[in-house]
Amino acid sequence: MSAPRVIAELVVTGIKVLGKATAAAGSQAVRNFKHKPEGVADSGSGGAGSSKNKVTSQLGMSLDEAHMILNVKKDEPMDVIQKHYETIFAANSPPPPSAEPVAAAAKQAGKQQAGKKASKVPTHSFYLQSKVYRALERIKAEREAATGGGGGAAAGAGDAAAAAEAATPGTGSGPTGGR
To answer: Cβ atoms within 10 A of the Cβ of 56, count?
Structure first.
């Protein structure tokens, strides 16, 4: 065989392999696009569970996810859920402002200069606070919709937000903590 013929066959074979791989990747992308995982709300259905889908899409969180975030079971009473909410929300809150920030900074600098590692200051996460707040809001909206009060799921979500703000002392407006 001559060298140009071998090179031409290699190029043709390479193009065939690349074409098959591209076609397989395209068909897999289409299957991934059409796939609907379990537990995800279907926005196009108007069936019996459409009010749940409406609340899920409105609040951006499924009921199962809300229960997982707050570490509660589905059948737990609201006072237990509220207690879990307050504990997790407080754990992710910023520490209260110290009375002597200058003295604390000088003491911290002295510790670092002595060669010891500085103690870890508890951190806070606005993102986690927001997730915890939205989880409580989602559970309250579902309970409102289940009891049939408040004019539907949308009104229940608004009532849940107002109740969560009122139930959390010293947080100001929502998960922002008055910031």
So the answer is: 25
* Residue 135, Cβ density class (10 Å: 0-12 exposed, 13-18 middle, ≥19 buried): buried
Q: 55 in a domain, yes or no?
A: yes
Please tell me the distance from the alpha carbon of residue 168 to that of residue 179, in angstroms, as a whole number: 15
Residues in the chain: 179
Residue 123 tokens read as 């951190």
Q: Is 113 inside any structural domain?
A: no
Verdict on whether the full-model pTM lies above 0.90:
no
Residue 71 lies in a domain: yes
Phi-psi region of 136 (alpha: psi -120 to 50; beta: other; left: phi over 0): alpha
Q: Tell me the two tokens of residue 25.
A: 């990747």
The tokens describing 66, both together, are 């809300």
Tens-digit pLDDT profile for residues 119-171 = 566 678 889 999 999 999 999 988 888 887 654 444 444 444 444 444 444 44
Residue 13 lies in a domain: no
Domain that holds residue 70: 50-93+123-179
Residue that the structure tokens 């589905």 belong to: 74
